[in-house]
Design brief:
Layout: H1 5-9, H2 19-26, E1 32-33, H3 45-54, H4 67-77, E2 84-87, H5 89-101, E3 107-111, H6 117-124, E4 128-132, H7 142-156, E5 158-164, H8 176-186, E6 193-197, E7 222-227, E8 240-243, H9 246-255, H10 263-272, H11 276-299, E9 304-305, E10 311-315, H12 320-329, E11 332-333, E12 335-336, E13 345-349, H13 353-369
Parallel strand pairs: 1-11, 3-4, 3-5, 5-6, 6-7
Antiparallel strand pairs: 2-8, 7-8, 9-10, 10-13, 12-13
The chain binds pyridoxal-5'-phosphate (PLP).
Residues 37, 89-91, 115, 164, 168, 197, 199, 227, 229-230, 235, 240 line the site of pyridoxal-5'-phosphate.
């Protein structure tokens, strides 16, 4: 049967290599996965207890309105229920926003080396992706993005702008002043939606960072994605939230599947939201691990990109795939990011401290085995060739 070129161009998602597969392939007993920015602490104990209790109800369909969850979030975040939507991970929300607002041939706008889910969802909806170059410090350039939109929005039919802050896989954040300028330039327009994705918000330490949380409902074309996958340690449950004007939520609720969020995820999120102790412990552990990684990578003379997430991306100075594979053989899974145009970099998530130490130890051993190659680093702003998200 005939299939459209946009669908044929899609590359299947390549997730971080699973632990079980790595054990099997390399005959290993212990494998440490620092490849998917997961929370090494597991889910909050409060979430686990709530889920245990809810197991016996799983012969029932979940609440399609997520009523209890939305009420709880509305109360804790002080945001009206009509401004909250729940998705099967932020991933689903990204996908649905594109399907709501874009027709085939329209475009979304983002940055090079921005989170790959935007591009994947766009492709599946036959929507084009425009990307502005990264800055030389690997940061996202909102000024260039706003200028690009103003110049090309009519010809390219740009409907959505995706801004991950902090970004994955670079870990860079966008300072408050640049966000304010961007919103004052494009905020309030009725021909484009500004989508801020703050998956790593809780991990940011930099004083120049500020969430757009307070501005979302004051600006009629601004929406915010938050996820339970990272600081809440609930990646497997699949739950993301959309904070947006009620018109957007209303459309979102029309296009989503009625049972897009399963019962255990709803129950777990309600319990997790009040576990401030867990969030604080996640932050403490993440910061301790990041500080350790920065010091150790510096000692190993590997340049790293300053990160405000729960991961760090560094330059191996070698063919990153060779380093990745040598680490796999030692039971350490990191993440190659070739699909973002980085051929010598690896992304490393923060784990438990003994996992972080084991990763650095293995990395040091592997670097000695693999000779440094005189790679020409990918210049920021060069076109991305390979597909597939991180
Ligand atoms: C991990 C991540 C998410 C979360 O995606 P989920 O589908 O909620 O698991 C969203 N945005 C970015 C930039 C991420 O890195």
């Amino acid at each position: 049967m005939k299939v459209s070129q946009e669908i044929l161009n899609l590359v299947p998602y390549r997730p971080g290599k699973p632990i079980s597969e790595t054990k099997r392939e390399f005959g290993l007993d212990r494998v440490i996965k620092l490849a998917s920015n997961e929370n090494p602490l597991g889910p909050s104990p409060l979430a686990l207890a709530a889920v245990q209790k809810a197991l016996q109800n799983q012969h029932r369909y979940p609440d399609p309105t997520c009523y209890d969850l939305i009420s709880t979030l509305s109360d804790r975040w002080r945001i009206p229920s009509k401004n909250l939507g729940i998705g099967n991970g932020s991933d689903e929300i990204i996908d649905l926003l594109i399907r709501i607002y874009c027709e085939p041939g329209d475009s979304i706008l983002t940055s090079q080396a921005a989170f790959a889910a935007y591009e994947v969802s766009a492709g599946a909806a036959r929507v084009k992706v425009a990307k502005v170059p990264l800055r030389s410090d690997y940061g996202i350039d909102l000024q260039v993005m706003a200028d690009y939109f103003l110049k090309n929005s009519t010809t390219q039919r740009i409907r959505l702008i995706f801004v991950p802050n902090p970004n994955n896989p670079t870990g860079r954040f966008i300072p408050r002043v640049e966000i304010e300028k961007f919103i004052s330039t494009l905020g309030g327009r009725d021909d484009v939606l500004l989508v801020f994705d703050e998956a790593y918000n809780e991990f940011v330490r930099h004083p120049d960072y500020e969430s757009v949380f307070k501005q979302v409902l004051l600006t009629n074309n601004l929406v915010l994605l938050k996820t339970f996958s990272k600081s809440f340690g609930m990646a497997g449950f699949r739950l993301g939230t959309l904070i947006a004007p009620s018109e957007v939520i209303e459309l979102f609720n029309r296009v989503r599947k009625p049972f897009n969020v399963n019962d255990l995820a709803q129950v777990a999120a309600i319990a997790a939201i009040d576990d401030q102790k867990f969030i604080q412990e996640s932050q403490r552990l993440t910061w301790e691990g990041l500080d350790f990684f920065m010091a150790e990578l510096t000692r190993l003379q590997l340049p790293w990109i300053p990160s405000e997430g729960n991961f760090i991306t560094f330059d191996t100075g070698r063919d990153a795939l060779k380093v990745y594979e040598a680490l796999l053989r030692r039971g350490i899974i990191l993440r190659p990011i070739l699909n973002y145009g980085f051929k010598t970099h690896l992304r490393m998530s923060v784990g438990l401290m003994d996992e972080n130490r084991a990763a650095i130890q293995a990395l040091e051993a592997v670097l000695e085995q693999i000779p440094q190659e005189s790679f020409i680093p990918v210049p920021a702003g060069s076109p991305q060739t390979e597909g597939g998200p991180g």
